[in-house]
Amino acid sequence: MTSKLSSVTITGLNVTVIHVEVDIDRRSVIHDVDIVGLGDTAVKESKKRVKSALRNSGFSFPQGRVTVNLAPGDIRKEGSFLDLPIALGILQATGVMKRKDFMAMGELSLDGGIRKIRGVLPALSVLSEGDFSGTVVIPRDNIEEAQLIDGLKIYAFKTLREVVEYANGLKEFLPVEHRQIPLTEFSDSADFSEVKGQLAAKRALEIAASGGHNVLMRGSPGSGKTMLARRFPSILPPMTTQEALEVIKIYSAAGLFQTAT
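RE: above sequence
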């Protein structure tokens, strides 16, 4: 019994689409899970999280040897993105969940919940810019990032059981609605006009701000680099929507994206 789902792996801001293939050999007397395909420690540990999540969600783990292949095999897979697609692949292979063509990403908790993951925004952005036209399943706690992406059919879930109910048509869920990036004025109290002296440095920053150039500040400790850097944004023009999205992608990939309260 085999199944196949899609997911992604992220290294920095580089997103790679991968395929999660699951095969179950019920004739094997060895009851274990093998994960192959250049996975890091977090990926290899996913089999323990998947086992507990399936059991605590009310699903039985299949008897026999379960082999999970992460393709392509020559690309390193990092992070806990793959917990959810591995669990769904097992449920598809055993016939518990109907075969549905979607892409899934998410870390599983031991009780079957789907945890927030980093890098959802750059992953969805790559999918929307490509030729992907299917459904994407993400953690519920990443919904605010997903709302910034247009052109994809995205569903957000809190638990593994909810995903199965959606796939089997037992419960109706609404897709994530797109919204515009809320752009606000810069409001830091540090102002560039407060800088006294530093004429050469200020001139360089003013030229960089007006021309959109990169800046590298070097100097001994206490020479004013941090002070100037903190006040530099006050003379920058407002970011465009695309520029704001690029900045948010970096925060998302670093796991620093903050949800609105």
